[in-house]
Design a protein that fits this description.
Layout lengths: L8 H17 L12 H14 L10 H10 L5 H16 L27 E5 L2 E2 L10 E6 L11 E6 L10 H11 L25 H13 L11 H14 L4 H8 L20 H6 L11
Antiparallel strand pairs: 1-2, 1-3, 3-4
Helix pairs in contact: 3-6, 4-5, 4-7, 7-8
Amino acid sequence: MAFILQRTHGTIKNKLGHLGEAHIESAASMLNPMHSFPRVRKAMSSLKRVRGTIKRKFPAGPPLLRHVRYRARGWSARNRLVLRGGLAVGFGFLLRCSEYLSRSKTLGFDLGKVLRGKDFQLRRDGRRLPRERWCDANELVVFLRESKADQFNEGCVLTHHLAADSEADLCVVRALRDLFAVFPERAPGGAEEDMPLFRWEDGSDFSRCQMRKLLADAGEEFGIPADATGTHSLRIGGATAVYAATGGNKDKTQRLGRWASDAFQGYAWEDRLFTRGLATSMLQAPWDPHRAAY
């Protein structure tokens, strides 16, 4: 798997874990058989050493997203709307690639996970709007049918609200509202509501390779190495933005990003302003309760 299929240590570890769990659930044994294979454990340790240190991807935030859109200014209006929607949804909802992008020309979309038109709702103050009133929407609700960390396969419902007018260009509510207006057949209730939403004007897939190249090319003009950005940069950028906007609220970042563990802490980048004023506050902190230690 590592050398022929080019799978990473983490992916292989995940697959082995599923094999062990399936063995236990089948009532064949109460023990995970993977624990009794010393060669497997040694092979996994070797793969981890070969992998080396993982280089964190750069977060794709609003400045980079706006530059991606600027570089696409010569595209058709309809394709620019698809691009805007993909960027806004990926960033705003902290999506994994398989949840909205095609894996490749040969593999296509992951039809069990990918977002379709019917998975979205446009609302006004919590109330679902009929199609003729979508222009009044101030909320966007998305239903994610399944995801990597959805242990009970129950799906997840997330909501975003209308952004301020100054941020209208990347507002996810406006982006989807406009996309549905131009592609009504892909919208909820349309003839193609069961199909993956993010497809180009000609119906071809919006792939992760295309998104990766768009972000990398825009990043290079910002002085960011091409290999420092990827499709996961949108999820990383969204996590970083939530973390900063909530004053470092780890629980909210983890919940919105749907992480089952604290692995999200490797995603959020801290801005230099995060510690502004901290040095003064540390020096002015009360010390009376600690005098007993001296």
